[in-house]
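From the shared-data thread, chain only:
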Amino acid sequence: MRFEIQAQCPVTGARAGLLHTAHGTIETPVFMPVGTQATVKGLTQRDLSDELDARIILGNTYHLFLRPGHELVRKLGGLHGFMSWDRAILTDSGGFQVFSLDSLRKVTEEGVLFRSHLNGDAHMFTPESTVEVQLALGSDILMVLDECLPYPTEHEAARVSMQRTIRWATAGMARYRSLADPDRYACFPIVQGSMYGDLRKECAAALVELDAQGYAIGGLSVGEPRALSLEMAALTAPLLPAGRPRYVMGVGMPAELPEYVALGVDMMDCVLPSRNARNGYLFTSEGRVIIKQNRYREDPAPVDPSCACYTCRTYSRAYLRHLFQAGEILYSMLATVHNVRRYLDIMRGIRQAILLGRFPELLAEVRSEPAEREPA
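Structure, as C-alpha cells:
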C-alpha cells in the first residue's frame, strides 16, 4: 500500500490524496460503506461498483470469524473471491463488536475471551490471532485488536485500557510483519484513550513508534456527545504522521464529514447510510426525508432532485413510501442505493473542493446550514 497527498488546504489542513492498494487506487478523502458480513446490506456488488463506484468497503473480523469462518473464506479465495468483489477491502479487528458483548466476554492481558452471540461457544481473540484471521480473509487493510471502552469511563480505567491497547498493537504489528507482504497488506493500529486528551496523546505517541502504514482513531462512536468526538479527533489527528492515511472509525452524519476532513482525516466509515435507509430515513441535499410521512403519499418528485442515483432517476417519493409501508424488500435496496450515493457524493465534492482550493468555502456553507439530527 502506498499513500500520496495531491493537495492540502492551507487554511484547515484538509488533504486530497490517492491510496494505492493491491485492489485498486482509492481517491481520498473517502467514505467506506460498511459490509459487516461480506455484504453491504441492501446492495449487490454490482450496485457498489457500477452504480456507486465505491472503491473500498469494510468487512468485520468478529462476524466473519464466527460465520462462515475465516478458513472457509480463505479456501474460497479470500473475501475478494468469496463475495466476488475485485476492489479494496478493509477489515475491522472485531474489537468493537467483542467489547459490545459486555457480559459475554472477559479481558485479559493475552486478549479477549468471549462467547459467540450465535450459539454461546467460547473463543479467544488475541492481537496475533486477529491478524492471522484477517490475513486469511485477505483484506487489503487490517486493523489491530484494540480495547474499546464505553462512554463515560473513569480516567484510571481508560489509562489502563489505553496502555493495554498499545501493548496489543505492538504484538499485533509484530505478527503482521512476520507473516504479511507489506506490498500486499497494510496494518493500522488504533489510537484509544476515551475522551481524555492526555491519554490520546500518550497513545498516539507510542503507536507512531510502530511506523505503521496508516493509523486509525477509535472509540469515537461509543455514546459520547458528537462535539466531544470532534474534539478528540482534532487533538489526535495532528499527532499522527502527515504522510500516512488517517482513519476515523464510525463517523458520522453528513454535515460531520467535512468537519473530520478539515482535521486532516482521510478515511471514514459508518453504518448510518444503510441503516437509516432501511428505517425510512433518507439523506438529501435539501435535508432529511422521512419517507413514511403522509406528505409523500402522492409526491411524484424524486427523493432528491439533485441526485443522479438510480433511485432518484427512476422512482418517486410516493412509490418509495408505498414500498416502505408495504414492507417490501425493494424499498431497502432502493433507499440504500440513494443514501450511500449521497455519502459518496459528499466526499467527492469535498475532494474536488480541496483540489480546487475551495474547501474553506465549502466548509462555511455546510456550517451555515441547519443541523440534521439522527432519528431516535
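The chain has a mean pLDDT of 96.
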